[in-house]
Amino acid sequence: MNKNPTSIETCKTRAIFTKNARTAWAKIISSASGQEKKKILLPSYIGYTDREGSGVFDPIQSSASDFVFYKLKEDLSPDLEDLQQKMNSDIDIVLIIHYFGFCRTNLKFIRKLCNDNDAVMVEDCAHAFYLSTNPLELGEVGDYSFYSIHKYLATQTGGLLKVNNGQLSIPEIHGHEAATASVVEAYALANFEQIAEIRRINYRIFFEQLQDIQEIEILFELQNHEIPQTFPIKVANNLREKLYFYLMDRKLETTALYYRLITEISEQEYPTSHSISKSILNLPIHQDISMDQVDSMCAEIKKFFKTH
Ligand SMILES: Cc1ncc(COP(=O)(O)O)c(C=O)c1O
Fold first, then answer.
1. How confident is the model at residue 36 (pLDDT cuts 50, 70, 90)?
2. CB of 128 shorter than 6 A to ligand 1
3. Pocket perturbation via mutation, ligand 1, pick of 23, 56, 145 by most ligand atoms within 8 A of CB
4. Does 3.90.1150.10 match the CATH number of domain 192-307?
5. Half-sphere exposure of 91 (CA within 13 A, CB side)
6. Looking at the Swiss-Prot or TrEMBL record, what is one Pfam family this protein matches (predicted)?
């Protein structure tokens, strides 16, 4: 018996810090597939921009994997019937994305479906910064889950790859695929509970102030301990673009995730995804935003709808 601990593996989360979420996802694909070409079942709401490409789809294309999409419902949760229909023994990896930090599906059902078909289940938590160890919670159900640190903390880069299945090894990463020391420091020093609480408070203010605007559909009502990434709304009457630029002119930044879907997701086959893509607007609720700033943005949004 040693007088001091000698194994850093004891009581350690089985995870590695990566350069960003897409690096983690690419590592998962290559670990799960080895040398063979594999087939990935994916949600049909994946976007891209000219500047950043597609964080979800680029690693799939780089690995030359086959892919097939499953349908999503109006709240971006998987259409379980379609998922089940497309699931078969050919599918090697199933990706679940917890859009904007929300998970309104039956993860246990998907877990069982993956087990029954011998598929690896992966949770994309790039928008969902849950670091729980409760085995039934978001980020803990998949064989792997991955996170985007720079979408949550004020860092330029950073990702995390978590291996929940004890039978799977932690992928090896090379120097250029790892997170920088400053990202790891920001992560180690961050007060995640406080950050989550500020996000919830800002979210609730948006909800209260915008719920009566007819042209706005709020995607999610916040439940107890959910940690939102943004406040997603659908804007009716093709007014999304106008509202986006109206706010931008007033130095109020928003995003539209995803205003442009990858071309592999056709409107004909996935009309719900396209209709969400055309109307979505994500309002910021992050920890740097004060309640007063949320109030001002709400006031501008109300003003906009009085005149449009
Ligand atoms: C759902 C989702 N997954 C993964 C990524 C990739 O994140 P990162 O920029 O950390 O590679 C993004 C963003 O691009 C995303 O929106």
1. confident
2. no
3. 56
4. yes
5. 26
6. DegT_DnrJ_EryC1
CATH class name, domain 15-189: alpha beta
Segments making up each domain of the chain, as ranges:
15-189, 192-307
Q: Is 216 in the pocket of ligand 1 (CB under 6 A)?
A: no
89: which residues sit within 8 A by CB, 6+ positions away? Answer: 117, 118
Decide if 244 contacts 143 (C-beta within 8 A): no
Torsion, Cα 226 230 236 239, to 10 degrees, reads 170
The residue behind tokens 């209709």 is: 275
Distance 21 CA to ligand 1 centre (A): 6
Count the Cβ atoms, other than its own, within 10 Å of residue 75.
13
Q: Could you identify the atom of ligand 1 that is nearest to the CA of residue 22?
A: 11
What is the H or E stretch that residue 108 is in?
helix 107-116
User: Ligand 1: which residue has its CA nearest to atom 7?
Assistant: 21
Bridge partners of 96, per DSSP, are 123
Indicate the angle between helix axes 192-210 and 291-307, nearest 10 degrees: 30
Residues 210-246 have pLDDT tens digits of 999 999 999 999 998 899 999 999 999 999 999 999 9
